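Handout, section 4.2: multi-component inputs.
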Amino acid sequence: MVYVTSWDEFVGRSVQLYKADPQSTRYCMKYRHCDGKLVLKVTDNKECLKFKTDQAQDAKKMEKLNNIFFALMARGPDVDLSEVTGKEQMEAQPAKKGRGRKQ
Amino acid sequence: MGLLQPDPFLNELTSMFERNRDKGSVWVTVKRSSMKSKSQKNKMATAGEPVEYRCLIRATDGKKKISTTVGAKDHQRFQASYATLLKAHMAALKKRERKDKKKGVDGDRKDGAGSTKKPKRV
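Output:
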């Protein structure tokens, strides 16, 4: 098992893995505070994808992946993912505009 | 501990993160599950009943296990609180490094913030 180094590749491949076998694919994260390390793993018991990081900026990316997987797993593999990622952008934009005008 | 409701689960997860601050790891696994045994599933399949799936979330620190499930209706509320929980507890990850400059600027800002705010009110 090798760590995937590119985040986009990790997201793409893990979603693909899940869609191929929704029933047996799990998404696992391990966080170790004392070492400041975060490991994400997606596996279907045949193939295993892992991503390792110690960067805070990757935690933000992970949040998005969490949302993707919660949506995929709670609603089903056919859920429209653009809805999940699109909403976040919609929420972020008005907030920025508001701040700019006030000051 | 076993299966909890989402809110007690988040509380337990918070204390699990706190217990493992100095030493230890926390694992959180997310999986799609019907929460039924194989025989139950087979029975339902033969009876022609549709199998309902939920999202199962499990957490452990190697000593204690907790879990919860969220369905299609309540997963968005859960994932929002889960995200804030993670943000609060993943403080050990490295920020982008701009070491010495930042420390100096931060110190100045704190002193300056008080004096700049007051004139605005007046």
